[in-house]
Write a structure and sequence with these properties.
Number of helices: 13
Shape: globular
Strand content: 15-25%
Oligomer: single chain
Number of strands: 20
Largest sheet: 5 strands, mixed
Radius of gyration: 21 Å
Length: about 425
């Protein structure tokens, strides 16, 4: 394991494919073992995970990134921040008393006592508890209220609760209560560790929702955004209003997403940039058939403070009208049933670490074959980590890592990464 990285860097991301210089990750911890078949749906999972397998797969994933870029881990930064009494007090108070849309159920103890208990912990123990949850000492072994502080089951999807938007960080307004407390940790990290200006849609309108899987930084003057079950129209309006105040010219290309099945939760589950002229896409979204037959694609244009809206035929046509020449690689290959199968396991959810240099799940074999045919060298994470293969030797590549357990959590390489700095 590499030495902990606790020196902040600059925060700036102006594209999806610029050379990655820094990224924020979270190693899946005990929190993912605190699910049962009874609460998995509440935790936003379709199944419970085996941590031994998750650990093995995640080591391959983060091992590739550590070979390429500057990697920060949430838990390391959180431990460092909690050494400061003011941050510790604020974060514990917010976690115990204020997060969520209803009061914390104390089930036999008081909020004041829980606050005091957490404040007595050292920074290492408290960082762990804020992520893994705090068990009710009076739990009867049967009831559902085992935790006074609920575990952050989804924290390793670092993309969702915060996302770098140019030289600021969008603290996202999560659509499900079980994920709301994640934003407290990211707000502390980016405000106090990285010292960056924050954006937050709910401070503009408490019904506005945004999540990072839906926000793609295509270029300095273009965002591609998904509108669906996680990011709503109010959240997109917030982004439009924000940039209308600040930019003379700006565009937001919005793709409407199905609300079910659950594999379509974010735009990056059907569309990701592979390079400046290539993308990975789910074919029914491009052709507007099947689940996408009634889903709109909207171009929001900002011109000297004026915001206008118009429909475009598809996300590729919208990019084309903005001067983008993008060739799609079709996730799952040519068979519609295989496309659905591989999309379900995050077959379109690739993460670009540089122009034409991406990482993704090996299990989606037809998608990997499509990348191979599109000129991407197929590299194995094990060979990269061992030093047998150098990513620097390839102009275009896909670094594949094993994924039997991780994909069942409902996300892929882009979901598990929060870029902080790109060229």
């Amino acid at each position: 394991m590499k030495e902990k990285n606790i020196t902040p860097c600059q925060v700036n991301v102006s594209s999806e494919t610029g050379r990655l210089r820094a990224v924020l990750l979270h190693r899946p911890g005990v929190e993912i073992e605190r699910m049962t078949p009874l609460n998995a749906a509440h935790c936003l999972y379709s199944d419970i995970l085996n941590k031994v397998s998750v650990d093995q797969e995640y080591r391959n994933f983060c091992g590739v990134l550590e070979r390429w870029t500057n990697v920060y881990y949430v838990e390391d930064i959180l431990e460092e921040l909690l050494r400061r009494d003011d941050i510790k007090t604020d974060l514990v108070r917010e976690s115990v008393f204020h997060y969520g849309r209803r009061p914390v159920k104390q089930a036999g103890t008081t909020g004041d006592r829980l606050f005091e208990t957490l404040m007595e912990m050292d920074s290492v123990q408290l960082a762990r508890v804020l992520i893994e949850g705090y068990e009710n000492p009076q739990w009867d072994g049967l009831s559902e209220d085992r935790y006074l502080l609920e575990p952050l089951y989804n924290l390793f999807f670092t993309r969702d609760a915060s996302s770098t938007v140019y030289n600021r960080v969008l603290i996202n307004s999560m659509s499900f209560e079980v994920r709301e407390r994640e934003t407290l940790i990211y707000e502390a990290i980016f405000r106090h560790f990285f010292g960056v200006e924050l954006l937050n849609a709910t401070q503009w309108n408490n019904k506005a929702r945004t999540e990072g899987g839906d926000v793609h930084i295509a270029s300095p003057d273009l965002l591609c955004v998904g509108e669906g079950i996680r990011t709503n129209a109010k959240g997109i309006e917030y982004l439009a209003q924000t940039f209308a105040r600040e930019r003379d010219h700006f565009n937001i290309l919005v793709q409407e997403l199905p609300h079910d099945p659950e594999s379509f939760i974010h735009l990056d589950m059907v569309f990701t940039f592979l390079g400046s002229h290539q993308c990975m896409a789910f074919e029914p979204m491009l052709k507007k058939n099947g689940l996408f037959s009634d889903k709109d694609t909207t171009l929001i244009s900002i011109d000297n403070g004026k915001i206008s809206y118009r429909q475009v035929p598809s996300i590729l046509k919208g990019l084309e009208q903005l001067g983008w020449d993008i060739d799609p690689v079709i996730g799952g290959g040519s068979d519609p049933w295989v496309q659905l199968r591989e999309q379900w396991h995050s077959g379109a959810n690739f993460f670009s670490i540089g122009n034409g240099k991406v990482i993704g799940y090996r299990r989606n074999v037809h998608t990997i074959e499509a990348l191979d045919h599109a000129g991407f060298a197929v590299l194995n994470s094990e060979d990269i980590i061992s030093g047998k293969v150098s990513m620097d030797d390839y102009e275009k590549f896909v670094a594949t890592f094993p994924g039997a357990e991780l994909p069942r959590a409902g996300g892929g390489a882009r979901c598990m990464t929060m870029p902080i700095l790109r060229d």
